[in-house]
Amino acid sequence: MARGVEENYNCFLAKHPENTFELNEANLRKIADALLGTQDPRGATYTPTVHSEVKFHPDQLRVFGKIAFNVLAYIKGEEYVLSPAFDPLRLWITRGGEFQARWHREIGDYFRQGLLKIPEKAHLVMLKPHKKLLMASVILYNSMSVTLIMTDQLPGPMDLDGMVCDWKKNEEFRFLDLIARSTETVIEMDEDE
Known about the structure:
Helices cover 37% and strands 19% of the residues. It is an alpha+beta fold. The protein has a domain at 58-192. Strands 1-4-3-2-5-6 form a six-stranded antiparallel beta sheet, sandwiched between helices. 20% of the residues are buried.
């Protein structure tokens, strides 16, 4: 680059040799007028429209399994979750592979439309025993939800339980407390009528 170029010129124009735009006085005048005038040289503003579809890899379900496993450990304790009944779950969480877990949009829709008053954008883990099965529903931000079977050999007694994380209020509470709070809200609504 020549010495002193920056001192002699206010701008540089570059064009690809294959571009048909001609650098002539008339076109340069249009550019100068746009830059110097009150007219905004940018084009009209517009709102882009995006059409997309989110796809998750089946391996990403393992994160939901880990969340459910941590909640179970918190509720039932270390000895309970170290039972061999949870070996397949622990192996799946750490190594991947096939497991009985699936995305479950309907669960999130059900809770949003039901009487349970789940805090906005909360995280919810519901643990539901059925005979020897222990099922978990993990719902993040009241939208993404996964249902999985944690074990088909439940090692001991277990009742409906779980945790709710209201991250906006920085509060965690048990699933049964959510049911109680929701019931209180319904009773208050009935009393107002």
